């Protein structure tokens, strides 16, 4: 991870041109995405480095996540990376700054397009449990809004919309706080 973080540091401070070839080379290694995820998650790194890492992380996942993302040049994301990212991304979003949060929101929407609800069934229960016991209500609702909004824009047929609507809203129904 220190090799990747040093390459990100060089990329941030050089305008990106020097480190891009070496970052592309490193992207062929296993757990590359998790290395970027860890850089974003570690507050010991400078905010600019974390922001650049979140941007690269988002762009990498766009090219690797889902069945239609495979190409000969780009490796697809491993199942282990897939599950680790899904298990930790909501927690990371709740502790992220706004600029990083924006990148992570795009990642969650991307993952949802490919995996949710069947491949990520615990997403909404996780959001609901955090909403019921956290002070981060706006952040949780922002995540939920991003998920639902992305599905709303893609629904061209009312029949399709109603076929996906009941599950999320049944799951997201909240009990009033007492």
From TrEMBL:
Subcellular location field: Nucleus
Importin N-terminal domain: residues covered: 19-95
Keywords: Nucleus, Transport
InterPro entries reported for this sequence: ARM-like, ARM-type_fold, Exportin-1/Importin-b-like, Importin-beta_N
One MF annotation (Gene Ontology) recorded for this entry: small GTPase binding
GO cellular component, one term: nuclear envelope
Main location: nucleus
Gene3D superfamilies recorded: Leucine-rich Repeat Variant
Tree of life domain: Eukaryota
GO biological process: protein export from nucleus; protein import into nucleus
Protein name stated in the entry: Importin N-terminal domain-containing protein
């Amino acid at each position: 991870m220190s090799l990747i973080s040093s390459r990100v540091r060089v990329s941030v401070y050089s305008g990106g041109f020097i480190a891009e070839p070496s970052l592309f080379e490193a992207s062929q290694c296993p757990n590359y995405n998790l290395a970027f995820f860890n850089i974003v998650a570690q507050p010991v790194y400078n905010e600019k480095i974390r922001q650049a890492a979140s941007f690269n992380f988002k762009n990498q996942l766009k090219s690797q996540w889902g069945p239609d993302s495979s190409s000969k040049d780009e490796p697809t994301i491993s199942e282990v990376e897939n599950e680790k990212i899904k298990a930790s991304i909501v927690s990371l979003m709740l502790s992220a700054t706004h600029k990083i949060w924006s990148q992570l929101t795009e990642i969650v929407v991307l993952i949802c397009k490919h995996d949710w609800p069947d491949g990520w069934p615990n997403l909404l229960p996780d959001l609901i449990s955090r909403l019921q016991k956290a002070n981060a209500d706006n952040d949780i609702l922002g995540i939920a809004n991003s998920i639902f909004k992305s599905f709303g824009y893609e629904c061209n047929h009312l029949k399709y919309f109603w076929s996906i609507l009941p599950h999320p809203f049944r799951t997201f129904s909240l009990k009033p706080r007492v």
